[in-house]
Amino acid sequence: MKYKLIFIALGIIACVICFSLVFNSYGKSYVVGIINNLIKQQVEEIEKNYTQNIEARDKQIQDLQTRLTTYEQSYNNLRRRIINVEERLKNRKPPATTDELINRLDQLGYPPIK
Fold this sequence. Notes:
- By secondary structure, the chain is mainly α.
- The chain has 2 helices and no strands.
């Protein structure tokens, strides 16, 4: 009976040693592989989201730049028109004769009464 207990104890110790050797050799690399795969998947997903966000922002920037150039062109056109009106106001003189007065009123849409 004593020998049976010794053999059982030695068998249990041998099994524990075998399991620990197997786990240390195969288990670590398996777990590390799983962790590396998860990290790789997360990095790919983050890169995908990042590129999508960058593309959306680039498109938004392009749209804003085109709108800005359109607004700048309209601003420049309005500024030119204002400058032309100001110059015409500076060069404006009162009518010297009645014929000139009648012509100006006619140009403004007030035809002379005949």
